[in-house]
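All the exercises in this workshop are built on plain-text protein records. Instead of coordinates, the fold is spelled out as a row of discrete tokens. Once this layout is familiar, the rest of the handout is easier to follow. The record below serves as our worked example for the rest of this section.
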Amino acid sequence: MKKVISIIALAVCFNACDTTPQASEVFVRQDLLGEWTVSQVAYSGEMPNPLNPSALMQFSGLGTQLMGEVNIYEMPDSGNIDLQFVANLNTIQVPVELASAGTWTLTNSDSTLVLDNDSVSYSFVIVSGLPNTQVWRTSFMQVPADSSYWANIDMELTLIK
């Protein structure tokens, strides 16, 4: 009986010593810093229907032809995002681009990263954060330069170091 209790106690000790990092729901400054690659983009949103501009068209999916990076530096607290992917809007392939550089700050008890380039600010809310993998959410409006169309886009970005 003593052996069984000893084995159970030993197993409990080993489980208590688990060193697997736990995902955070806030940005941890030392984990945030560095160069990240965007490995996946899930998107959803709405835009005017090209066949009937007075009606809105809903869309969602995973971005294809993805190229993206996010770089976060300190002293000074500066950073940039350069993201490009193709969104499949039913039968239409639409290029999506989000690019900005400027200063960054953490707000909302460190759950939101704000990247501000003086003319526009982008906010990224952390969904899950680990030292080498993070998931962020953001929303923005894209208005292509050669088009009168706009799109409100919600994105969930998966980033890896």
Observations:
- The mean pLDDT is 88.
- The chain has one domain: 22-160.
- The beta strands are 34-49, 52-62, 64-73, 78-89, 92-107, 112-116, 121-129, 133-142, 151-160.
